[in-house]
Amino acid sequence: MSINYFGKYFNKQEFNFPALIHDDFFEPIKLLFQNKHYVSASKLLMIFIDSIGYIEYGNVTENTFVKWLSSYADLSEVGVSAEELWEFRNSILHMSNLDSRKVQAGKVKRLMFYVGILPNDIEIDSDETKHYSLQELILAIANACGQWFNSYNLDRNKIDAFVTRNDLIVSDNRMLWIDLTDKQNR
Fold first, then answer.
1. 46-55, 69-78, 83-92, 114-123: least confidently modelled range
2. For 91-121, how does the pLDDT look when each residue is reduced to its tens digit (9 = 90+)?
3. Phi-psi region at 95: left, alpha or beta (left = phi > 0; alpha = psi -120 to 50)
């Protein structure tokens, strides 16, 4: 059962778009990251990109994950492409490993994230694997969201599509919570 979020994020003056996205996605990603659940944080980040790609473009035949990243994200500092992240997404979400079909076929390198600063003396397999900073990716996606938010200021007609599509996205923040420790609810 969905909870009405309009009162919290919409008022007569504004739509607090950044707060809604933060509460629905970035807060859980941050909690996972801060508690050293890095793989889970990366999975939720991929789901987030899937979700906002759907919100932005709807149910189309194009790859909205890659399209959203290509439209809004500067991944140059991260050192990965939208297409490489798509393959990472496919492998990590569907198989919980790093080898998508294209990686297995040798068409793209395996992506592997790290947290922190890589020591200079560490040996890295760069023939088959490409490393990137999960922290830098999260920051790049956060910056991309700023660009995305601004697109709604430039085209106010997008808000109706946002509301319609966002209402279909499931989020902990907008689900009905029932206290199961309350004897009345057992």
1. 114-123
2. 999 988 898 899 999 898 999 999 998 878 7
3. alpha
Q: What residues contact residue 141 under an 8 Å CB cut-off, 6+ apart?
A: 45, 48, 49, 73
Which residues have CB under 8 Å from 19's CB, separation 6+?
Answer: 8, 9
Nearest to 53 by CA among 144, 154, 134: 144
Q: What is the pTM of this model?
A: 0.85
The CA–CA distances, whole Å, from 16 to 10, 20, 161 equal 6, 7, 16
In sequence order, what are the residues at sequence separation of 6 or more whose Cβ sits closer than 8 angstroms to the Cβ of residue 40? 32
Note whether 120 and 108 are within 8 A (CB): no
How far is 52 from 56, CA to CA, in rounded Å?
Answer: 6
pLDDT band at 2 (very low <50, low <70, confident <90, very high): very low
Identity of the residue numbered 114: Y
* Backbone φ, ψ for residue 132 (5° rounding): -150, 160
Query: Where do we find the tokens 């004897």?
Result: 183
- The reported pLDDT for the residue numbered 175 is 58
Judge whether 28 and 44 are in contact, CB under 8 Å. Answer: yes
Q: Where do the structural domains in the chain lie, given as residue ranges?
A: 6-185
Strand partners, 112: 131
CA–CA gap between residue 24 and residue 18 (Å, rounded): 10
